[in-house]
From TrEMBL:
<keyword id="KW-1133">Transmembrane helix</keyword>
<feature type="transmembrane region" description="Helical">
    <location>
        <begin position="150"/>
        <end position="166"/>
    </location>
</feature>
<dbReference type="Pfam" id="PF01699">
    <property type="entry name" value="Na_Ca_ex"/>
</dbReference>
<dbReference type="InterPro" id="IPR004837">
    <property type="entry name" value="NaCa_Exmemb"/>
</dbReference>
<feature type="transmembrane region" description="Helical">
    <location>
        <begin position="308"/>
        <end position="329"/>
    </location>
</feature>
<protein>
    <recommendedName>
        <fullName>Sodium/calcium exchanger membrane region domain-containing protein</fullName>
    </recommendedName>
</protein>
<keyword id="KW-0812">Transmembrane</keyword>
<dbReference type="InterPro" id="IPR044880">
    <property type="entry name" value="NCX_ion-bd_dom_sf"/>
</dbReference>
<keyword id="KW-0472">Membrane</keyword>
<feature type="transmembrane region" description="Helical">
    <location>
        <begin position="278"/>
        <end position="296"/>
    </location>
</feature>
<dbReference type="GO" id="GO:0055085">
    <property type="term" value="P:transmembrane transport"/>
</dbReference>
<feature type="transmembrane region" description="Helical">
    <location>
        <begin position="206"/>
        <end position="229"/>
    </location>
</feature>
<feature type="transmembrane region" description="Helical">
    <location>
        <begin position="119"/>
        <end position="138"/>
    </location>
</feature>
<feature type="transmembrane region" description="Helical">
    <location>
        <begin position="250"/>
        <end position="272"/>
    </location>
</feature>
<feature type="domain" description="Sodium/calcium exchanger membrane region">
    <location>
        <begin position="182"/>
        <end position="325"/>
    </location>
</feature>
<feature type="transmembrane region" description="Helical">
    <location>
        <begin position="74"/>
        <end position="92"/>
    </location>
</feature>
<dbReference type="GO" id="GO:0016020">
    <property type="term" value="C:membrane"/>
</dbReference>
């Protein structure tokens, strides 16, 4: 099968997986209202679904014996997602929202509005998760992803979700469950499974045709493709006036990817073949939420990201690409 046909299959599979995730969002959104969760806490709950394509891809790659694709997907999607979604959110929020004087102040100041609570609820706990991954995988005696590491990371996600819900609980609302949307959720789950299978299958064939390693394919093919459809969701949510929800959801998604999506790779014992490539990528995974936390902490009366801070996120990703090309992969 021609490599370009596999590229088309990859794109269609990524779309199918994210369509499925969108259908699964409905029951969780209803639960968020019923439980009275704030935007930041709700993002942590909804991330179980919004990050499900990445989790399904890693389950599939582990089952097919190509866990390095999953490892690359785990790292690559978590590096590109924050600068990409923050940039998309900034441009999507450059419009007036009816009867929202607070947002007008952010527009006048060229800021991307953000609830400061998102740092304590999401960003700092996510940094703790990355630190835990480093402790479990970097020391020579423990190097690699092992079953015990997977169980520890599942426990870390349970703690992350519990913390977010406790910190962001308000009075709940009464909701009515729609049977049609519930059945669509079932169809969504099937779409995620089928999409994940073909994402991994297409990546296997593309890396074979291009003669590149599976982990590099995971970093720059699978990782980007599983993240790219989130652009439309972020744009739509922010355009609809939910600026904080649209901007913070990426942190919650990444926390799920680094914990729940870590589990299947650890369960089949994934070795780290290229240590330099792994630690460099893990360092940039940590850099993105660190910048996020520092930039929000700098904001005073109006909480959010300024235009130069948005550019700083994008510059950090460009530095990552240059580091990979010239110092890690040594392509030139």
């Amino acid at each position: 099968m021609n490599v370009w046909l596999w590229v088309v299959v990859l794109g269609l599979a990524a779309w199918a997986a994210h369509w499925g995730a969108d259908q699964l969002l409905t029951p969780l959104k209803m639960l968020r209202k019923q439980w009275g969760l704030t935007a930041s806490a709700g993002a942590a709950l909804l991330a179980i679904v919004t990050a499900s394509p990445e989790v399904a891809v890693n389950v599939t790659s582990a089952a097919r014996g190509v866990s390095e694709i999953g490892l690359g997907n785990l790292l690559g999607s978590n590096i590109i997602s924050i600068p990409l979604m923050v940039s998309i959110a900034y441009f999507a929020s450059r419009k007036q929202f009816k009867n929202n004087k607070e947002h007008q102040k952010h527009l006048d100041a060229n800021l991307l509005a953000l609830n400061k609570r998102s740092v304590s609820v999401l960003s700092i706990p996510y940094l703790a998760i990355i630190a835990l991954v480093a402790i479990l995988t970097l020391p020579k005696a423990w190097r690699g992803l092992q079953p015990i590491d997977g169980y520890i990371m599942l426990a870390a996600y349970a703690a992350f979700l519990t913390h977010a819900i406790i910190k962001g609980r308000e009075k709940g609302e009464k909701v009515e469950w729609d049977k049609k949307k519930v059945w669509l959720s079932v169809a969504g789950a099937l779409a995620i499974a089928v999409g994940a299978f073909f994402i991994v299958k297409a990546t296997e064939n593309i890396v074979s045709a291009l003669n590149i390693s599976e982990i590099v394919g995971g970093l720059f093919i699978t990782g980007i493709m599983t993240t790219a459809p989130e652009i439309f969701k972020t744009w739509s949510v922010v355009k609809g006036g939910e600026v904080t929800a649209g901007t913070t959801s990426v942190i919650a998604d990444n926390a799920v990817t680094m914990t729940v999506a870590f589990f299947p790779l650890a369960l089949v014992t994934t070795p780290i073949e290229d240590f330099q490539l792994f630690w460099v990528n893990l360092a940039f995974v940590g850099l993105m939420p660190l910048l996020y936390s520092l930039f929000v902490h700098q904001s005073k009366e109006l909480h959010g990201f300024s235009r130069w801070q948005i550019f700083a996120f994008d510059a950090a990703y460009i530095v990552y690409l240059l580091t990979m090309v010239f110092f890690v992969l040594k392509l030139f």
